[in-house]
Fold:
Amino acid sequence: MAERSKVLYVSRTKEEKRAENLERILGDYGTQLRVNLSIQAEGTFAVVKEDMGFRQYLYRGMENALAESVLVVIAHNINKLHWKIQSQKTGIRLYELKNPA
Structure:
């Protein structure tokens, strides 16, 4: 059997962009962004799963799952707003809106 040799060519531009991205990701700012993103996402998923009891989708299909996800997100945001209002972190309470007169 004859020996075959295959050659793989990789674009120089691709390698340059890859090196730039790797440098950006591993830099101080990139590390800080990744840490903050993981903390924020994990906290939200924990609240949705544990506090709100959302463990699985009740409906099948992409459209139904998307609609259910949107409802869960809206409920989560309303819950966050409620607790901000109750702890007076919004600046003003909703029933104390100033009269524009």
